[in-house]
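Lab channel / #folding
Pinned by the channel admin:
"Please post every new chain as: sequence first, then the structure tokens as a reply. Keep commentary short and put observations after the output so the thread stays searchable."

First post following the new format, from NK:
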Amino acid sequence: MSSSPQPGDGRPGTRGTGRSAVRRAELIAIGRKLFADTSYDALSMDDIAKQAQVAKGLIYYYFRSKRGYYLAIVEDSVAELVSRAAGGLELPPEQRVHRTVDGYLRYAEQNQAAYRTIVSGGVGFDAEVDAIREGVRETIVKTVAEGAYGRRRVSPLLRTALLGWLCAVEGATLDWIGRGGLSRDLMRELLVKMLGGTLRAVEELDASYPAPRAARRAPRP
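Reply from TO:
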């Protein structure tokens, strides 16, 4: 979803192996919490170094800049979210949709700070950060399409419909992890039923995308 970092481009790089990789991962874990609770502009490199209890130069060594650090945090969080949501390739299409939504919710529930960083981080408008977020949305849209229709190709209508559903999922999930009140199972079923309504609407507008059997309403007696 992202290109390999190039020297001097300000993107996060990987320095060394072993202990260095562990230290870098530790800094990213700290950054997830920092940027989830405080806006990007409000955190200086001095603040970050103080919270991480490291010399400021160490953060520059691994990430080159504050922006590079933030990008590394977003990309790490996105990779884990996509891995959770895109699993279950061996399942039948209908079960895979449930697996995708459940994996998405499990990630959000177990990694609340990281999820907030992905969906509503405080960097403001940044074309590269925005591209990372759009990349994860496109991946999840294609994953849902494959689960629902057995193929990742999506028409403009289906893409727009699924993207609209996913944006609603993001908002609802943020509210869910912030307020609670619903079990994950109930939340999953709610989002799956919302998806069913979206897929039925697509079928009404484009018969070449018939709603999957599981998305159809049972006939009234």
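NK: The first helix runs from residue 19 to 37.
TO: also worth noting, DSSP finds nine helices and no strands in the chain.
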